[in-house]
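User: tokens in, sequence out, please.
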């Protein structure tokens, strides 16, 4: 991936090669976003294979709405992947700040805290987007073309994988944040969402 490239404009082979390299970006945050985007793309495919068929005419409007939501979300998730790489770079920059005097040390510590908070917001946003989209997979399982039912299921699995991966990336940042109230708020939202995934996902939601 070129420095000025984006996930949306990068080929799969180039992205995977970059992911496997010794460069820390793209890393787990970008991978989580791409995984979630793949899940949403599969839901879009199911919508496209449902729309225009007479036997699904009664749910045409609903499926069209789901498709539009998924297409918007897919692009947004890739943007979040790009943002994750940007905030990681920002964290690396603040860790390089000087700390030769008490004033510099204090300023550096404050900058690190601010950067960690900003960095945690990106995977937290991805987590929330995956959470919001997962019910659409459940709905498509009910009303979508049954010939592509397995694609709905895989799409849902990928969204859940995106949620769990995003949570891990949030936690990495929270571990370095001193603001207990900020951390607790993030953890409460994530745990409540994971608690609602259902019995089929129990055992998968540990950190």
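Assistant: Sequence out:
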């Amino acid at each position: 991936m070129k420095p000025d490239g984006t996930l949306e404009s990068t080929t799969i082979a180039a992205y995977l090669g970059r992911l496997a390299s010794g460069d820390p970006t793209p890393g787990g945050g970008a991978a989580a976003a791409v995984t979630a985007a793949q899940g949403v793309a599969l839901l879009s495919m199911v919508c496209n294979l449902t729309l225009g068929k007479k036997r699904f005419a009664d749910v045409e409007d609903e499926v069209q709405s789901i498709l539009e939501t998924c297409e918007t979300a897919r692009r947004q998730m890739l943007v979040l992947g790009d943002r994750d790489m940007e905030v990681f770079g920002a964290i690396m920059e603040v860790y390089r700040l000087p700390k030769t005097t008490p004033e510099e040390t204090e300023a550096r510590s404050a900058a690190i805290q601010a950067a960690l908070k900003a960095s945690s917001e990106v995977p937290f946003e991805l987590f929330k987007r995956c959470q919001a989209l997962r019910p659409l997979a459940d709905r498509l399982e009910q009303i979508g073309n049954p010939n592509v039912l397995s694609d709905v299921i895989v799409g849902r699995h990928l969204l859940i994988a995106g949620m769990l991966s995003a949570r891990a990336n949030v936690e990495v940042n929270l571990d370095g944040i001193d603001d207990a109230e900020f951390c607790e708020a993030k953890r409460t939202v994530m745990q409540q969402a994971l608690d609602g995934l259902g019995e089929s996902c129990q055992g998968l939601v540990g950190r």
